Amino acid sequence: MTMQKSEEAEIVKKVLGGDLEVYGAIIDKYEKKLLRFVMLISNASKEDAEDIVQDTFISAYQNLADFDTKMSFSAWIYKIARNKAISWHRKNTSKKAGEKIELEEEVFLNLKDDAPSILEELHAKTATDKLLEEIEQLNNKYKEVIILKYFEGKSYLEIADILHIPPGSVASMLYRAKAQLKEKLKNAYEE
Fold first, then answer.
1. Which range (72-81, 85-94, 142-151, 169-178) has the least confidence?
2. CA distances from 34 to 2, 63, 98, 152, 190 (A)
3. What domains can you pick out in the chain, each with its CATH number?
4. Residue 148 Cα to chain centre, angstroms
5. How confident is the model at residue 139, as a pLDDT?
6. Helices (H), the chain
7. CB atoms within 10 A of CB 31
8. CB atoms inside a 10 Å sphere around CB 36
9. Which residue from 136, 124, 144 is spatially nearest to 181, judged by alpha carbons?
């Protein structure tokens, strides 16, 4: 369920007016989504990712007066989370030069609601692991676009806003990323 911009503006106004319960509702709505997102784009442990998300909410609250109500609140808070994750990654990888951002695979394991047989579960996990492995090998700019579009369900405009790129670039980056993934998966299954 997406809030309309007018609803988002009203929520921001209430929080700025001191209604902290409304901000608690924002945290409840975005906490799990942002945690998954941060874990996917960084090599942070769950504890570190939780700290990053907490920093995101603190920063969002402190800068709420700067929120442009013409923007999507979702895109704004994802942008803050992305920036916090990048800062965390730079700080923690300066000690380990050359370390790549890695996906946390267990976050993505999407099992069906109806309990699959052990064989189906094994096949699904193997396919998921292979897909995640191939996504991991993508250039970070392609990886972020794939994660935001297909795992976070963001629109092209939201992705463009989060990554600070033109919407047309989102479309071309997604096209290239999917083409690369398709080729990698094709080659992997031919082996």
1. 85-94
2. 15, 18, 25, 9, 36
3. 1-99 (1.10.1740.10), 109-191 (1.10.10.10)
4. 5
5. 83
6. 5-16, 20-41, 46-62, 73-93, 105-108, 118-137, 140-146, 156-163, 167-190
7. 15
8. 18
9. 136
